Amino acid sequence: MCGLLTYICASGSAKDKTAGIERALETLHHRGPDDTGCVTVGDEVVMGFKRLSIIDVEHSEQPLEYEDGRYVITFNGEIYNYLELRDELIAAGLTFATKGDTEVIAAAYHHWGQAAVRRLRGMFAFVIWDRQERLAFGARDPFGIKPLFHLVTDDGVFFASEKKALLPFAAWGDQTLDHASLSYYLTLQYVPEPATLHRQIKRIGSGECFTYRPEDGLAVRRYYRPEFRPVPQNDPKQLYARIRDALRESVRIHMRSDVPVGAFLSSGIDSTAVVALAREVNPDILTFTAALEVEGYSELPVAEETARHLGVTMHPVVVDAQMMMDALPEIIWHLDEPVADPALVPLYHVAKKASEHVTVALSGEGSDEFFAGYTIYREPLSLKAVTGLPDGVRRGLRAVSKAIPQGVKGRSFLERGTTPIEERYYGNARMFTEAEKSVLLKQYDPSVSYTDVTGPVYAEAQHLGDVEKMQYVDLYTWLRGDILVKADRMSMANSLEVRVPFLDHAVFDVAATIPRELKLPPRSADTKYALRRALEGVVPPHIVNRVKLGFPTPIRVWLRAEMYQWASHVLDTSRADWLVDLDLVRRLLKEHKENVADHSRKIWTVLVFCLWYEIFVTGSIDPRPRRAPSQLLTKPVLTKPAG
């Protein structure tokens, strides 16, 4: 995996930015410690690159030129079908100087134009500069596995793998904080795409490509849209076979590498399936798992049993409260944006352990969204007795629910059943309600709502059933806002490439056809039913119907004990009190410690934001690796307005 930083000049000289690009590039060193490249292309473009060598290790340095220098490309990711594409392009008369996938992208663009992006199978974010046409073209993979940030200025446009590399080029001042994004974060526990907390810096979306010509500006369009299309199954066993075959082939092609490949292993079916299928390709594959020192939170015993059953070597790492506290500031620096998912910390440590043995690790992200793995996806089935009633009856029941006192059994059921799914479901994480934020936020704007994020997605999914609507919403919110940010940043923080075989368009093409009754059988508590049936005989029997924990973290326990003083200190020293009512959060922490209520996730959400603020705004916390140049954050990025 790698890190790119590209600047395309709209006025003046690109050479004026070269020294700044070279300095900013060092903030991406963790993404590619093997090699550094920075070139100025004419007087219009500067391309910088940090390489983690995976394919064609001895060659394929970047930035890479193609067609006698007409094209120059920077590319972060892996193209798993690059060998097949290369053969096809050679048959069409094209030539190659390397054996890597980067040159294949450039050649494909030369041969097929912008349509080439639809032929790429992999995870990617790239920028190609066409010197002849004075045109930049780039894209991000269909599901958003690899990140791509951009900053448009009067001088031109910048693209980077991480936001921190763009901060030195953004305008400073009081008005750069995106208050709407902060509001979304406090509800969703992440900042939803395409926005960031910096108003000027945005993200290219999953399945999007773009063009940029200095005189025309940036134009972004979507080239891929996932479509759920359930198909009735007369013979479910044929469907299960297609699922198994698609996943097996995806794992096989994801193991293409010139460096060692390992895998993460938890107690759930997703990572176990990946390991079991990877073992068919490499019986000696190494596996890695995280354990936590609190009873009921550790996946280690089950993972150890799985490793024994499959005959693979497992390297565990045990994470305690002190490790959580010590690692969190650096983790937030790597994240760029606050993400209040405590599972980040064990994932960071297991990636660190894996990086001691391998350069690439397979993981099971994406299975839950593709195959309906979240328990909340069963909600439309449980509410059917209400949602199936006539509109007038539902309105009456809505009025009845409001008359029932809070906490009385039945109120929540009636409220949810009489609320349209477009208002009821906005993802797996539900931190602060609008009512709570109206008190918590010092600058609360009632016109900002999570429906601003989910509304356009639901509009595209109106033809789907409620379960498929929830899956579709998660593909554009939870998956790319939380799950894939975790996977990319925590692995890259340790110079480890993580590959996700479930997030493959061939796997999705099969998963999209599964009818609801084979995803979530009405007479069963199972989720991912079709996937579980497909993997019988592939994964150990004790895993087939086991609910995945997914690197759970006991912050509920630790915030009452080991982490209480630390959390108090974070709140007491934070200068974000002009944005958030920290006295209110202190009260929540006190109630949590006294076991009045479980406020752990809300407290954690604010703690992460406070640390983010001190790292990226005030600069009072500097957790950066020594190799990151200190001068890049000497000015405040966001400051408290005067008065």
From TrEMBL:
One of its GO terms (cellular component) is cytosol. CDD domains: Asn_synthase_B_C, AsnB. One of its GO terms (biological process) is asparagine biosynthetic process. Pathway: Amino-acid biosynthesis; L-asparagine biosynthesis; L-asparagine from L-aspartate (L-Gln route): step 1/1. L-glutamine binds at residue 101. ATP binds at residues 363-364. GO terms for molecular function: asparagine synthase (glutamine-hydrolyzing) activity; ATP binding. The record marks 365 as: Important for beta-aspartyl-AMP intermediate formation. The keyword ATP-binding applies. It is an enzyme of class 6 (ligase). Residues 2-215 form the Glutamine amidotransferase type-2 domain. Belongs to the asparagine synthetase family. This is asparagine synthase (glutamine-hydrolyzing). The lineage of its organism: Bacteria, Bacillati, Actinomycetota, Actinomycetes, Pseudonocardiales.
